[in-house]
Amino acid sequence: MIKRRVHVAAAAIFSDDGQEVLLARRPSTVDQGGLWEFPGGKLAPYETGFVALQRELYEELGLTIDRAQPLIRVHHEYPDKHILLDVWQVGDFSGEPYGREGQAVRWVKLDELFNYPFPAANLPILRAVMLPTEYLISAEEADDGVFLNKLERALQEDGLRLVQLRAKTLDHEDYVQRAEQALALCRRFSARLLLNGEPELLKLVDADGIHLTSDRLMTLDRRPIVQGKWLSASTHNAQQLDHAAHIGCDFVTLSPLRTTPTHPDATPLGWHDFQQLVEPAGMPVFALGGMTRHDANHARAVGAQGIASIRDFWQ
Ligand SMILES: Nc1nc2c([nH]c(=O)n2[C@@H]2O[C@H](COP(=O)(O)OP(=O)(O)OP(=O)(O)O)[C@@H](O)[C@H]2O)c(=O)[nH]1
Ligand SMILES: [Mg+2]
């Protein structure tokens, strides 16, 4: 039997403060009935994703969508069909949402999303919705005071909320000490801190997660930390992306998009190859390598969650 291919446009609509997202409950009588979903539906013949999104959101919720940006595309095999969930982050809309088909509709806090039952395809969407568009990777910094000043500037002035502590030149003891200081600072700004290092670090410092180097990623055959923490990894090719999905990483960086002074010999992917690699990834992917915040919209347009950078944020 040839499986049906179903292309669905769905919306992530955030409240003004960015802390809540709009969910709808599928009527109990339909496929996946009773589960919560991001509102949307199937593309009609010849429709583009965005046009389908506009039509479905009007039909289902009475909303007029003026502007939206790609958030994530998720391919998923259900027993009876191959589905592509084409999820858009809605920028501007008008109208007050209500369930025009009698379905329940609810604003849900991001940290309560995991209390809701979703279809099996939705896990990557939940991760994408919970993550920002910018991922700060800290630079090597010999002095703790200078490090903390630069981190505080990035949190305060650039509003960064996702931070990776990368410090290859510190020994274990100094790394742990810096991680504790960085964590205290990140907590003040409600930013998440991931430790670039061995998963056991989380037993010493109660940070929000671990970032794996691509070498460490490839040595693991299962997820090394609990589900409540974030697991990210560095990837550079399809094999590493597959492995990241296999062990249950929550998101990854994919690099180098451009040539950078720190990695002059690495062959850059460029946007075209980057897009090809991201499409089947099944998790949020940050573009890394010569990226600045001005590249974030372009990265989104080719399927990325956003951009990761050291230089652009470390000043
Ligand atoms: N809208 C939406 N559909 C999802 C999500 N996750 C997910 O697996 N799906 C699946 O994608 C398909 C969406 O179809 P739908 O029933 O919403 O389509 P539709 O609005 O065009 O409805 P209709 O075909 O009854 O007119 C369903 O098989 C549904 O289970 C999600 O978060 N949002
Ligand atoms: Mg629908």
Automatic annotation (TrEMBL):
Keywords: DNA damage, DNA repair, DNA replication, Hydrolase, Magnesium, Metal-binding, Mutator protein. One of its GO terms (molecular function) is hydrolase activity. The keyword Metal-binding applies. It comes from the Bacteria. It catalyses: 8-oxo-dGTP + H2O = 8-oxo-dGMP + diphosphate + H(+); 8-oxo-GTP + H2O = 8-oxo-GMP + diphosphate + H(+). InterPro entries: Aldolase_TIM, MutT-like, MutY_C, NUDIX_hydrolase-like_dom_sf, NUDIX_hydrolase_CS, NUDIX_hydrolase_dom, ThiamineP_synth_sf, ThiamineP_synth_TenI. Residues 4-131 form the Nudix hydrolase domain. Its EC number is 3.6.1.55. Its cofactor is Mg(2+). Pfam families: NUDIX_4 (PF14815), TMP-TENI (PF02581). Belongs to the Nudix hydrolase family. This is 8-oxo-dGTP diphosphatase. It comes from Modicisalibacter zincidurans.
